[in-house]
Predict the 3D structure of the following.
Amino acid sequence: MQQRQCVVLTGDRAWCEQATETLLPAFNSERLLCLSDRPVGHFPTLRLKQAKHQLGKEFEAIVFDGLDTLLPDNMGQSVGTLCAGGVFILWFVVDRNSLYSQRFEQVIRQFESPLHYVKQGDALPHLNLLDQASEVTISRTTEQTEAIKLIGKVVTGHRRRPLVLSADRGRGKSAALGMAAAELLMVGLKKIIVTAPNMMAVDSVFSHAASVLGCAKPANGKIDYEGATLKFIAPDALLASDDTADLLLVDEAAAIPSTMLARLLQRFSRLVFATTLHGYEGTGRGFAIRFQALLEQQVPGWRHYELSEPVRWRQDDVLEAFSFEALLLNAEPVEERLILNADVRQCTVERIDKGVLTNDELLLRQLFGLMVLAHYRTKPSDLQLLLDNDDIYCYVTRYKGHVLACAWVVEEGLLPPELASAVYLGQRRLKGHLLPQSLLAHMGIESAGGLGYRRILRIATHPIVQRQGAAKALLEAVYADAKSEQIDVIGTSFAADLEVMSFWESCGFDVVRLGTQHDEISGQRAVTLLRACSTVGGGLHVDATIRFEQQWPDLLMMQFNQVDVDLILALSKRLRSKGSVLANWERQDVFRFVDGAATFESCQLAIRKLVSMALGQPHFLELPTSEQRLLIMFIMQLRSVSVVTRALGFTGKSDLMSVLRRVVRGLVAFPSEDNLIVTTK
């Protein structure tokens, strides 16, 4: 198999274009991908961000324009579509004002010998272009054969023993899924479902299945074969349907919300999960660690298989090695053996100067590798953001020079009054400034724009030292610096997770908002937490907390009526407001209901007010969790009798009402000094 070739052209645009036309004379446009935000000579050109839409295709030549700005995510996407023997031509000029660009040039120089680094005026290299009339035939690898065999065992073996396939990009993982699906249909399996973040992600699955079955590649994500079916269904649609399958294939699993994966795991008994380990869209390493814990808990008989042999290029492919190094796709945290005896009390916490990062490759790789491990959608462009954004700081906890924990912090706020007013009035949306913008636009705190904020973008701790205080030490350093530098508030926003929220609250942060939209990565709603650093910041913090607590009961029946009840319970327990009192007629309605003298519907408003007042109070927290769930779902979220009955295991409406009367009676039976049943005239 022929090496893939790479030419880096550095010079002005006209020369780069002329040199490219010389290197690729009369090249077949159907086999060439040209990516630029400007027209490029006679080449059909796509915009740079269209690179992701070419996944699943193969090209023999790629031209990537990095002159105006180098977009690392799109470059990584395009590299994965180049076949063996193909030519990758990169236009690049180092930007001396960009640390990322300077590091990128350093990596180019490291690979200058196997690559071709050509400056304007230098002679162009001779390239070995593929015979465009020939078709490259790729045979099934030994690892793919083994993977197909293991997929078959998922179907024929014991139930609830899923298989996890992992591989770097280009190892034929999706192809193996397609070939295995086809073979299973041929031996009698009737229905196989494929799910993934989108249908484009499984293009290779269907093309290889169609090839094995000898039919045309489908355009609608469905293959019918002798009464059997292979079809694509998006994860959310699959979970919302009653579809069943003999086998479920989950491709690019790391890009699907973990909550969805858990539900798929519960619903289907024969599954194969496939994920990319090192890729331009993020990594599957962190996903594998977290998902493994779920698998061990729910299906301890699960199996794992990793494919390492490239399918579309050579094992020693120079272009892959260059792209991994330049984009830090292969960044890993410090080896466990080096920090086995780490003691957080012996660690140093410091804010790192970015110039140090570009001159200390080991530090950079450990830092970025740790962030990749902790946040599985960390992308190459995140490194660019860290190095080139002057408003972003990096804190690290180190033990004997090794990175145990790190945090990325961004400066926000101090908005001009007219700009803050425009955001408050819904006339402007800003790029960045998440904290002040959320407080202005969503919570209606008019004074929020003028304060200074530091938002913790991401925080990560090496798995071997988690829960030992390394991350807390980081946050205390961020707080101390913010306080001494007259910042008003530090805060963060992340996909709601009960364990993560508890950690932040133990560090002095309070929840002030639950988002109305689902996070596209986790499938969860975002929570916003704040910690005041100044007197003015303290006033804002109190204002935001009071608004959140006062609006919470009404939000539960409107924007949050479908939110997971355990998350609602967790947030409700954090409320500190004392509520109000019941009027005399409300008191009478409550007792008429608990005594069985009136229907729930006729007393519903009074009962709702009672429960709203009780949220977060000791007597509510002392109720069994099942009773708390009943009050939240039926009274506060206004979910239907059928939904609550099914979710909580009641036999019917009568059973539900009987329990509800008992629970409400318990709410009004707590000691008199804490009694909310107060009569007003």
In short: The chain has four domains: 5-119, 142-307, 344-572, 584-674. Confidence is low (pLDDT under 50) at residues 132-137, 671-675.
